[in-house]
UniProtKB/TrEMBL annotation:
Protein name stated in the entry: ATP-grasp protein-like protein
Molecular-function annotations in GO: ATP binding; metal ion binding
Organism name: Halorubrum californiense DSM 19288
Domain ATP-grasp: 39-222
Gene3D superfamilies, sorted: ATP-grasp fold, B domain
Upper taxonomic lineage: Archaea, Methanobacteriati, Methanobacteriota, Stenosarchaea group, Halobacteria
InterPro entries in the record: ATP-grasp (IPR011761)
Signal peptide interval: none
Pfam families given in the database record: ATPgrasp_Ter
Length: 309
């Protein structure tokens, strides 16, 4: 089971003479890459998590459950795959052998956390110390039932900062990482979902809000000391959208039928929400000096949506 990141970390000695590597130790990376180990470690330092088990350790799924890969990327038969997430009703039985075969490994099973919001804590660390941090609230995802962010807003919540730093400090982190939380609607607790031990897909929002993570990463890789790289403040309430993901979200509202316990918004409600946010949002890939990537991405996105009609 290998992703590109874990390959790089495991082979640091072979390539470090040719490139500057700002990456964590193999022990830290594997603890973050393995979602089951991440949850166990978080529980050990009093960070709230969903109830989590390996699939074979559960004779019966908890009510409203999530089955997800232990790893964001799986290698099987020299091919990479992205197993994704399955939402199931606890009253339904789970064919464990079929799921393990489908995902090419034994996944984890978690209780579904009813949520009032999904949040991300983002950071670049230098040998266990945070250089810069950032937070966002996810407003829309690629699917109405979940997935990568399509539209988000910069926020600053002390509890998320405290929990995110505690986890990355515990890992003695080095480099970029995203820590994902879900706010439990039952008690308001921020519960850890996972760590993405890499730069994240919504990177453009942090830059628009005032935290230039790639530049900070470059500075660290160029050998600047802490005196030359300092924690950067940022503007809250800045929003950003990824057009392709927004169209995927719209398509999910039109065509997908998720589990009954995940409310599906109406088509008109979705369109109005997207239209209201568009004029005041930053847009991933949009740059007046280089507009073609944005134009091409919009073209491909619209084409993909029309193919579903």
């Amino acid at each position: 089971m290998n992703g590109y990141g874990i390959y790089t970390v495991r082979n640091t000695e072979e390539i470090q003479d040719d490139v500057s590597l700002i990456i964590p130790s193999i022990e830290s990376y594997e603890a973050a890459w393995d979602r089951y180990r991440t949850v166990m470690m978080a529980q050990s330092c009093n960070i709230p998590t969903p109830e989590t088990d390996l699939l074979s350790d559960r004779s019966k799924a908890p009510d409203r459950a999530v089955i997800k890969s232990r790893y964001s990327i799986i290698e099987s038969d020299n091919e990479l795959s992205y197993p994704g997430v399955e939402l199931i009703d606890g009253n339904n039985s789970v064919d464990q052998e079929a799921v393990i075969e489908r995902m090419s490994h034994e996944p984890i099973i978690q209780e579904y956390v009813p949520s009032t919001g999904e949040y991300g804590f983002f950071a670049v660390y230098d040998q266990g110390s945070p250089v810069a941090t950032f937070q966002h609230r996810r407003i829309r995802s690629t699917s109405y039932s979940g997935g990568a962010s399509a539209h988000r807003e910069a926020v600053r919540i002390p509890e998320i900062d405290r929990l995110g730093r505690r986890l990355l400090d515990k890992l003695d982190w080095h480099g970029p990482a995203m820590v994902e939380f879900r706010r439990d609607s039952r008690d308001g607790t921020f519960r850890l979902m996972e760590i993405n031990p890499r730069f994240w897909g919504s990177l453009a929002l942090g830059i628009a809000a005032g935290v230039d993570f790639p530049w900070l990463y470059y500075q660290l890789a160029s050998g600047y000391s802490d005196d030359g790289v300092s924690d950067m403040g940022y503007n809250t309430h800045v929003q950003a959208s990824y057009i392709r993901a927004e169209l995927q979200h719209f398509g999910s509202v039109c065509f997908e039928r998720g589990p009954s316990f995940v409310p599906r918004p109406g088509v008109v409600e979705t369109v109005l929400s997207q239209l209201r946010s568009a004029p005041t949002s930053e847009h991933d890939l949009l740059d007046a000096d280089d507009p073609l990537p944005f134009v091409y991405d919009v073209y491909k996105s619209v084409t993909a949506l029309l193919d579903r009609l």
